[in-house]
Each structure stands twice: as structure tokens, then as C-alpha cells.
Amino acid sequence: MPELPEVEALAHDLGRRLDGRAIVRVDIAAFSALKTFDPPLTALAGGLVDGVGRHGKFLDIEVAGLHLVLHLARAGWVRWRDEVPALPPKPSNKSPMAARVVLDNGAGLDVTEAGTKKSLALYVVRDPMDVPGIASLGPDPLEDSFTLDVLRGILTDAGRAQIKGVIRHQGTIAGIGNAYSDEILHAAKMSPFKPSSSLSEEELQTLYVAVRTVLGDAVKRSEGLAASELKGEKKTHMAVHGRKGEVCPVCGDVVREVSFSDTFLNYCATCQTGGKPLADRRTSKFLK
């Protein structure tokens, strides 16, 4: 899933490519992806792109006072094309194509979603806050306003909730997903099952630094990369996420996994849980 660093880099890359270009049309290939009807997609035709930004994991293309907002969900992506086909994409349940943005110079964007579970969402709105997911976002962890006190309040309010679930909940902190929550907790040497309100002041400061550092470093590494390079960059620099059975780069222990019905987490027992492997979430106890 694209998370804050990848969406930030996408916004920079697309901003460079789209700035000042006019949108000819937006073709929808997966009708379930379009979540709004007013303004219509046709309202974007002829509009100049004023800029590309980010709200959490939402990509925001501003077009002549309107906003084309994308949430790429778990398996979505945006692919730049120097030349798009003359014919619009055909709707098909078997095709990964969700939408295509056609520009005045013949180039464009293909918005795709792999797999059979279709969750990608596209909105055309007058104000980004008209998108429910944006309106309910928590603070951005890379903004100056995201202070140690803000994180302290979030964790205190979360009570005994597991810390991994808290820091990846978009209404609590914007932009952190499954992958970077694993990386942040590994950097902080903290169990993903640790109760949020149980952190000491030292642990709180360590977690805060890990959030800012892991995300900030990922954003810096992605600066200047094209959209086609971002997935590889992300995967290459993961310490534990997606590396089950591999060696922890910090201590040399094996990276372990806890599986859930539709997702998983990765961690290092030596670095994060005092050497104790975590059982399945349904049977394991919180680690303190």
C-alpha cells in the first residue's frame, strides 16, 4: 500500500509533470472507483493543473479550482504515460485499469489497481475536506505541529489499545500504514502489541523520534524519483516489513510474522519483545 512517503513523492513527481498542463478528459474504466457525481468528471475538461498535493495517503490534483482526489488503497498505483492510446480504456473486471487522465500534450496518467479486491477511490470535489476520509484525518506526523505533546495525548487517549493499531489508524495519525508502522516500532525497539498508555516518558520520546526519522528518511530517499521507481525504493529499505524469515539488520535474529485474516505484521523478537516470539493475535497476551 502506498503510504505517506510514497504519496509525498508521487505528488512531487506528478506536480513536476502536470503543472500548467490542461486536462482533456478523465476516462473511468472501473465505475465503482468513482465516489462522487457533483461536480461531474466532465467539469475537469479544459482545466489547467494548478498543483499536486497530499493529505495523509490521499493524492490531490488541483484543477482550475476543483480537486481530483485519489486514494490508492492497498493495491493501487499511478503510472505516467508519455503517450496515451487514442481510445479510452474499456471497462473490464479482469483489467487492473481504474481510470485514465488524458492531458493536452498527449501524455497522461493510468490509475490502476491490482487484485480482485477493489478499494481504490476517486473523487471530484470543490474542497478536499468534502472527501470524508480527508475530513477525518489525524495530524500529519511530518508537520511541525506534530509535537511530542500531541503524540502523548494520542497515546493517552488510546488507553490499552495496541500501539501498532493506534499509530496506523488514519483518524489518529495521517499517512502511516502497515509497512511503516512495522518499521517505526522496530526502530523504537517496541512490541506492536504494547498498550499505548503504558509507555514511559523515555519510551514516548523514543517512539516520537522513530516516527519522525523513519518517515522523514523515507521521504528524503524518494525525492526526485519517478513514480515507477518508488515501489522498489520502499521495498529495498524495509528493515523488517515484508522480510519474514530474513535476518534483522540490527541484531541478526530472524524476522518473524504474525498473520491476521487479511493482513500481517513483521517484527524482530530480539529487538522488540525481549526475545519472546509473539503468538497469533487471537491468543497472545500484551507485552509490557
From TrEMBL:
This is Fpg/Nei family DNA glycosylase. PROSITE patterns: FPG_CAT, ZF_FPG_2. The keyword Nucleotide-binding does not apply. It catalyses: Hydrolysis of DNA containing ring-opened 7-methylguanine residues, releasing 2,6-diamino-4-hydroxy-5-(N-methyl)formamidopyrimidine. It comes from Nocardioides mangrovicus. Residues 239-273 form the FPG-type domain. GO terms for molecular function: 8-oxo-7,8-dihydroguanine DNA N-glycosylase activity; damaged DNA binding; DNA-(apurinic or apyrimidinic site) endonuclease activity; lyase activity; zinc ion binding. SMART domains: Fapy_DNA_glyco, H2TH. InterPro entries: FPG_cat (IPR012319), FPG_N (IPR035937), H2TH_FPG (IPR015886), Ribosomal_uS13-like_H2TH (IPR010979), Znf_DNA_glyclase/AP_lyase (IPR000214), Znf_FPG/IleRS (IPR010663). The keyword Transmembrane does not apply. Its cofactor is Zn(2+). Pfam families: Fapy_DNA_glyco, H2TH, zf-FPG_IleRS.
